[in-house]
Structure formats: structure tokens, C-alpha cells
Known about the structure:
Elements: H1 2-12, H2 20-39, H3 45-55, H4 60-72, H5 79-99
Helix pairs in contact: 1-2, 1-5, 2-3, 2-4, 2-5, 3-4
Amino acid sequence: xxxxxxxxxxxxxxxxxxxxxxxxxxxxxxxxxxxxxxxxxxxxxxxxxxxxxxxxxxxxxxxxxxxxxxxxxxxxxxxxxxxxxxxxxxxxxxxxxxxxxxxxxxx
Length: 107
């Protein structure tokens, strides 16, 4: 279910265009999906953000922004932040798909 939900964000991310808070939500949701698959533990979005920032330092600045956007509930539309959020979501969905292939039940 986590892999499917992460993949679905490739399309859902379009709905974040008008809200930085929603863009932050999308980024943090993908952080949590990745962290849950990597650690096999369900953690908060904040904990997941810290985990991904540690594992992927190049993503740390945007993750930090996403945390601020969510906390501020900033609904300001901004194409620049949308493009960053969209790229992050697409990249993380690809990483999740590549690193965590589906488990097949073997009879």
C-alpha cells in the first residue's frame, strides 16, 4: 500500500500548485513513505523528514522548507515552490519504486 500511495503522488502533486502548505504535505508524505519502507517503522512526518535529510543531504534544504510551509499553513501560490515540490515528489516516487520492489508471496 505504501508503494502504491507513493506512486499515486506522481499525479496528486498537481493538486498542490495553489498551496505551499499542501506542497509541504506532499514532500513530507513522501519522506514518511520512504522512511517507513527503509526502517519498517511508522514514524511522524517530522521524524521521517529528519531521516531522509540524513540519508539524502542534497534534499535537506527543501525538506526544511517543507516543514516550515506546513507549520505556517502557508497557502500562498508560488510556481517556484510548486516546481521544487513536484520534482521532489517525482524523484522520491522513483527512488521508492527502485529501492523497494514489491514483495511477491511465494506459495
